[in-house]
């Protein structure tokens, strides 16, 4: 079969067949009566073998080795091809993500595109200062897609940069909440923590609803951050978790401040005082925890708290009794 016929039937161009010939990959073994080179059936099978191996990503050099070297083993080469393919997919995925984010920002012209690309690159910089400036600039200068800000916030380890990213997300409003809700479901504890911290800084009713849901989250850290944020928003659902934090000495000062803020509502104040008294009477609560609970009562107004402190001033635990007596003195002043 002449080269033109082979090209038509195999789909390999005549130019490529000549290139294979020049490299010694496949050389026509026959001759026509007129002296033209002619491909045999075996030659054509070899062409299809070459094309099959090329489809796996092998170079022509490796194709030749695979077909001609009896000692050639494919295992290492295939493993290397797998690695290269994964790297290429990762690069292409990263490019696709970047293009999607640029498209989501709806740039008006190429100047906008260049500015968005610069900010996206800065968000991924190794320099914390550059990342922080990019987070701040994302609000003032160019509309960086919320998806990029959320991804950066959930992966950021530098506290200053993380604060800037949370501030930027807070300016975006409810748009970030769905993505942050996904972060709350992450298998990585640090990601869940960053997600709830970011939600806590979004002043939005939907954010409050998400924080309410977070009070039932299986991650204790998520529940605690949610309770602190809800306490600041005047949501009484946070009270049980805040009291647990005082008992467990986990951000107990912040938890007590949150209870004090909630106690501005007289009805809630009585509920808080009643719950604090219940925990004080719990037999499993140790002395230091009872002291912290007594101190927390100091900032809760109302008769329920006052009566409880009066009773505690005669508590058999001397440290608790002294604390209650001192607190009563301050309340009467």
TrEMBL record:
Gene3D superfamilies: 1.10.1660.10, Leucine-rich Repeat Variant
GO molecular function, one term: DNA binding
Alphabetized SUPFAM superfamilies for the sequence: ARM repeat (SSF48371), Putative DNA-binding domain (SSF46955)
Signal sequence range: none
Domain HTH merR-type: residue ranges: 1-69
Superkingdom field: Bacteria
PROSITE patterns membership: HTH_MERR_1, HTH_MERR_2
Keywords: DNA-binding
Protein name: MerR family transcriptional regulator
The species this protein was found in: Micromonospora costi
Source species taxonomy: Bacteria, Bacillati, Actinomycetota, Actinomycetes, Micromonosporales
């Amino acid at each position: 079969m002449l080269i033109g016929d082979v090209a038509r039937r195999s789909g390999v161009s005549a130019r490529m067949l000549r290139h294979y010939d020049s490299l010694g990959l496949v050389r026509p073994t026959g001759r026509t009566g007129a002296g033209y080179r002619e491909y045999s059936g075996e030659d054509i099978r070899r062409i299809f073998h070459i094309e099959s191996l090329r489809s796996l990503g092998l170079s022509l050099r490796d194709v030749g080795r695979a077909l001609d070297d009896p000692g050639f083993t494919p295992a290492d080469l295939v493993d290397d091809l797998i690695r290269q393919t994964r790297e290429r997919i990762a690069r292409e995925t990263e490019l696709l993500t970047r293009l999607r984010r640029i498209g989501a920002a709806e740039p008006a012209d190429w100047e906008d595109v260049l500015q968005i690309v610069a900010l996206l690159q800065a968000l991924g910089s190794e320099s914390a200062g550059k990342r922080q400036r990019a987070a701040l600039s994302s609000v003032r200068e160019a509309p960086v897609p919320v998806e990029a800000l959320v991804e950066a916030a959930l992966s950021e380890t530098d506290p200053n940069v993380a604060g800037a990213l949370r501030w930027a997300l807070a300016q975006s409003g409810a748009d970030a909440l769905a993505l942050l809700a996904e972060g709350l479901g992450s298998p990585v504890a640090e990601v869940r923590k960053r997600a709830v911290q970011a939600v806590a800084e979004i002043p939005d009713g939907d954010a409050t609803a998400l924080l309410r849901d977070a009070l039932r989250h299986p991650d204790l850290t998520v529940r605690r951050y949610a309770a602190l944020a809800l306490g600041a928003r005047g949501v009484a659902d946070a009270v049980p978790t805040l009291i647990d934090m005082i008992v467990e000495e986990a951000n107990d000062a912040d938890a007590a401040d949150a209870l004090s803020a909630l106690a501005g509502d007289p009805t809630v104040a009585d509920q808080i005082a009643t719950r604090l008294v219940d925990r004080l009477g719990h037999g499993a609560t140790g002395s230091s925890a009872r002291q912290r609970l007594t101190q927390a009562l100091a900032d809760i107004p109302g008769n329920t708290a006052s009566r409880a402190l009066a009773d505690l001033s005669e508590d058999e635990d001397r440290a608790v009794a002294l604390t209650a007596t001192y607190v009563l003195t301050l309340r009467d002043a």
